[in-house]
Amino acid sequence: MINGRTPEEYFNNEDEVQVLKTKQIRNEVINYEKVVYSKKKFIQNTLEEKDILFASMGVGSLGRTGIFYNFETNKKTAVDSTIKLLRKIKNIEPEVLQTFFNSIIGQEYIYRYIVGSTGIISIKNAFILNLKVPLIKQEIQTKIAKKLNILLIQINKNFIYHPMFIARWKML
Questions:
Q1: Which terminus has fewer CB within 10 Å in the chain: N or C?
Q2: Which tens digits make up the pLDDT trace of 39-93?
Q3: How confident is the model at residue 6, as a pLDDT?
Q4: Global pTM?
Q5: For the chain, what is the domain count?
Q6: Model confidence over 150-159: pLDDT tens digits?
Q7: Residue 93 CA to its chain's centroid (Å)
Q8: For the chain, what is the mean pLDDT?
Q9: Distance between CA atoms of 15 and 65, rounded to whole angstroms?
Q10: Cβ distance 10 to 138 under 8 Å?
C-alpha cells in the first residue's frame, strides 16, 4: 500500500502531473473532468496500470474505490493524501478486489474499523494492510476480472464522454 501525498502547490498547466482527489472516485469510475496538476518535484509516486485507488477519509467517501487504467489518460497521474494506493496484491485481481470493496459486505467490513467523527472519519493503514478478503480460485478470478474489466472500461468510456454524465459531474 502506498500513501498518496497532497502536493505543496497545484497548477492549471496540463503539462504537469495530474493529481486525483477523493471527489473524483465515484461508483467504480474515475472522473478526469476537474483534474488539478502539480509539478513533478512535488510527486512521490505515480499511478501504474490497474492500481486500485481507495478513498481513506470522509463521510460518504471512505471506502470508494476506482481502478486506474492507462487508456483513460496519457498523462502521469498521482493521488492526494486522502487516497491510498493498492498495487499488485498477490493472488487477487484488482477488479475482484474492487467488487468486494464496493459490495454491501465489503462496505460494512470497512466501516467497522473507522476512526474519528463529525465528518472527518478515516481508516488506519494497519486495517487496510490486514483486510480479510475472500479468496477465489485464480481461474475463476480471471474470468470474473475479464468480464468486469470489459464492463468497467465501457462504463468509464461512457462516463467520460457521454454528455449526460458530464453534465451530472459538473453539477457536483
A1: C
A2: 776 677 889 989 999 998 888 888 889 888 876 667 888 888 889 999 888 889 9
A3: 63
A4: 0.77
A5: 1
A6: 776 676 666 5
A7: 15
A8: 79
A9: 26
A10: no
Contact call for residues 28 and 60 (beta carbons, < 8 A)? no
26: CATH = 3.90.220.20
Q: Which three cell numbers stand for residue 24?
A: 473524483
Q: Is the dihedral of CA 18, 156, 83, 74 positive or negative?
A: negative
Nine-digit cell string for 35: 483534474
Long-range contact set of residues 34-39: C-beta below 8 Å, sequence gap at least 24:
34/169, 36/10, 36/11, 36/12, 37/10, 37/11, 37/12, 37/13, 38/7, 38/8, 38/9, 38/10, 38/11, 38/78, 39/7, 39/9, 39/11
Pairing of strands 29-30, 25-26: antiparallel
Structural domain that includes position 139:
2-171
Phi, psi dihedral angles at 37 (to 5 degrees): -125, 155
Name the one residue in this structure whose C-alpha cell is 502506498: 2
Helices (H), the chain: 94-102, 104-111, 125-129, 138-161, 163-171
